[in-house]
Amino acid sequence: MESCRRTGLSGVLCSLSLLCVILDIQLDGVLGATHVEIEHHLEMGRKLLAAGQLAEALSHYHSAVEGDSKNYLTYYKRAAVFLAMGKSKSALPDLTRAIQLKPDFLAARLQRGNILLKQGNTQEAKDDFNAVLQRSPDHEEAQDQLIKANELEELQEEAHAAYHQGDYSATITVLERVIEISPWDPESRELRADCYIRMGDPQKAIQDLTPTTRLRNDNRAAFLKLSLLHYRLGEHHDSLNHIRECLKLDQDDKECFSHYKQVKKLSKQLDSAEGYIQEDRSEAIDKYESVMKTEPNVEYYTNLAKERICFCLVKIKLAMEAIDACSEAHQRTPRNANVLRDRAEAYILNQDYEKAVEDYQEAREFDSDSNDIREGLERAQKLLKISRKRDYYKILGVNRNANKQEIIKAYRKLAQQWHPDNFQSESEKKEAEKKFIDIASAKEVLTDPEMRQKFDAGEDPLDPENQQGGGGGQQGWPFHFNPFESGGSFHFKFQYN
C-alpha cells in the first residue's frame, strides 16, 4: 500500500495492481508445472506409439496439445497416431496446424501432400510437393509423388471424358488406376459404382459404394443408393440396415424415410411368411400373396413368393394346386432347382412318378450337390419302379395324403365289389381273387404307419425281394394264407375292420 501512495494510485487501483502481480506469480508457477507435464505426455505418447497402443498414445498427445497449442511437433506427432489408426481425415487438420506454426516443416508438408493425393485432391497435393521441392530440390519422395499427382490429374480427366461419352467399360478401366493412386477418394468410387450399375453389375457397385459411407461425412446419398441396390437384389435385411443408417444422420430425410417405410413393410411380411412356414402354418401363403401386392415391380420378390407358395402347397399336400403353382413358378425361373424339386414332390403326391423323376433329374442338373434332390430322385425312381408292379394308393383309388378312415372306406367298397363269391365263371373268379388280394394288401400296408412310411419312401414292404429269408408266393397275401386255395366251393366271410 505504501508503494501505491508513493505513485499516487487510488486504493481500488492499487488493490487491482497488486492482484495482477500475485496472479502473474501464480501463473508462472502453473506454466512451469505444465511444461513438465507436457514433456511427460509426449514421452508417454512416444512409448505407447512404439508399443502399438494407439488409443492410449492418442490420449497423451491430446493432453500435450491442450497443454501447449503453439508446439508444432505435438500436432505432428498426434497426426502420426491418427494415421497409424487409419484416421487420415483427423490427421489432416493437425498437419495443417503444424505447417501454420512452422511453414518450413517439410515432413508435415510431405505427409499432408500424401494424404491429399490419396483423397484425390490433386492440386492441393501438388502445392505441398512443390513447396517441399522448393526448399529441397533433390527430395526423391516429393518428386515421385508429384509425378503421381500429375498422372492422377490426367487420369481423372480421361475417366470423366469416357463416362460422358457413355463408354462405361473404358471408364472403369481408367478408374482402376485412379483408385489405386487415390483409394480415399469417394468421387472416383461413386463414379465407378454408377458405371457398374449402368452395366448391370449391382454387386460390384455395392462394393464401391460401401467405403464411401465412411469417406464422406453425412453420406446419406450413398446409404440410400446402397439400400436401393440391396432391395432390388432381394436382400431386404441389408436394405433395411442401410436405410436406417441414412435416417440416423437425418431422421427427416424424405427420400430415406419413404424408402424405409417400404422396406420395413416388405421385410416384416417376408419374415412373417417364413415364420409361418417354419411352424407349418398355411397362413404363409396369404403372407406371400401380400408380398406380391406390396412390391409388384421388383421381379425378385414376385418370383420368391411364387416359389414359396409352391413349396407351401406341397407341404400341406394339395397336389393339383401345388402342380399349378409350381409350374407357374417354373415358367418364371426355369433354372430354379427348388421349384423343380417341389413340383416333383407334387407329382409324387399326384402319383405321377414319371414326371417326378423328370423334374428331379432336371433339378439335379442345376444343383448337383443337393442331398435333398439326390435322395428325392432315388425315391421317385423307386416309386416309379414299384408303381409298375403294385401301387397301393392306385389299387384303392385314394390320394397319397388320404387318412386312415378314407383308406378303410375305399377298401370296404372295393372288397365288396371284388369278393370272389360275387363271380360265377372260373376265369372271373380268378381275376377277382387277384384283385381281392391286392386290395387286402393295399389296406394292410396303408393302414400300418411303419409299412406306409416304407412304401412312401419307395420300398414295397410286401415285396418278397425286400424281405429277409423270403421266397414263396404267399408273401403277397397279408393274412399268411390264401383262402381260395381250397377251391371254388369255399365261402370266405370277409371281416371289415
UniProtKB/TrEMBL annotation:
PROSITE patterns: DNAJ_2, TPR. Residues 391-459 form the J domain. The keyword Repeat applies. GO terms for cellular component: endoplasmic reticulum. It is found in: Endoplasmic reticulum. Its main location: endoplasmic reticulum. Residues 448-482 are annotated as: Disordered. TPR repeats lie at residues 72-105, 106-139, 337-370. It comes from the Eukaryota. GO terms for biological process: protein folding in endoplasmic reticulum; response to unfolded protein. Residues 448-457 have a biased composition (Basic and acidic residues). It holds the Pfam family ANAPC3. Keywords: Disulfide bond, Endoplasmic reticulum, Repeat, Signal, TPR repeat, Unfolded protein response. Residues 1-32 form the signal peptide. This is DnaJ homolog subfamily C member 3. The lineage of its organism: Eukaryota, Metazoa, Chordata, Craniata, Vertebrata.
